[in-house]
Each structure stands twice: as structure tokens, then as C-alpha cells.
Design goal:
Layout lengths: L1 H37 L4 H4 L11 H12 L2 H13 L5 H13 L12 H12 L2
Helix pairs in contact: 1-3, 1-5, 3-5, 4-5, 5-6
């Protein structure tokens, strides 16, 4: 009985470690994709002040779509990034766009002009 209990503990611990490493790999993948979007290879895009230009390119569009397609997992990660930081640049705007798309927000009702603005609106709507 003792050996079976010890084996069960080892399996549970290994599973928890695996989940943690898997989460880190996912977070790393999302960070890489966000960085690739924010720092495009196309110099014309990198000079643009329009955040939407950054997700139009073939590679950046694939990265953006990947982030959105991960759904709730991406959403939770990006909400955590907003909660843990105070930045409000292009990266946050791209994250806000992805979060809004994941949440299926109506683009016509967009009432934010920055990523942090979207997050603050999201938090206030969540906790009225």
C-alpha cells in the first residue's frame, strides 16, 4: 500500500510539473508572437502609427490569428499581463485587439483608444 501511495504522489507531482512547463511554453509562444507582431520585419509597417497595420502582414496576421484561436487560454494570459503591468504601448493595443476579438466584442461599440483603456473598460464592466 505504501509503494502504491508513493507512486501516486510521484505521478501527481509529475503531472503538476508538466502542466507548469506546458503553461510556460504557451506563455513563451504568445510572447514571441506578440513580439514578432510589434517588431515586424517590414520597415514600412514598423513606421506606421496605425496598430491595425501591424496585423495585416502575412506573418504577423498568422501570429495574430494563432493568438486569437487559442481563445480563453490566450485571453487569460493577456489579462494577467495587463493586471501585472502598467505599460500602454503597441503591444498592449495588440493584446486588447486580440482580447476583444476572443470575447467577440462588437467592433462598432469600441470605446477605447489604447490597450490600457480597453483593459480598464473591461475591468470596470466586469466589476460594476
Amino acid at each position: 500500500m505504501g509503494k502504491m501511495y508513493a507512486a501516486l504522489i510521484v505521478l501527481v507531482a509529475a503531472g503538476l510539473i508538466g502542466c507548469s512547463q506546458s503553461d510556460k511554453s504557451f506563455e513563451h509562444a504568445i510572447d514571441e508572437k506578440l513580439n514578432d507582431i510589434v517588431h515586424p520585419k517590414d520597415m514600412k509597417v514598423s513606421l506606421s502609427s496605425n496598430p491595425y497595420d501591424y496585423i495585416k502582414g502575412e506573418d504577423s496576421n498568422k501570429d495574430y490569428k494563432y493568438i486569437v484561436e487559442q481563445g480563453e487560454k490566450s485571453l487569460n494570459y493577456m489579462l494577467g499581463e495587463f493586471a501585472d503591468g502598467n505599460n500602454d504601448g503597441l503591444r498592449e493595443y495588440i493584446m486588447a485587439m486580440a482580447c476583444a476579438e476572443i470575447l467577440q466584442e462588437d467592433p462598432a461599440s469600441k470605446d477605447w483608444s489604447s490597450g490600457r483603456g480597453w483593459y480598464n473598460h473591461y475591468k470596470s464592466a466586469e466589476n460594476p
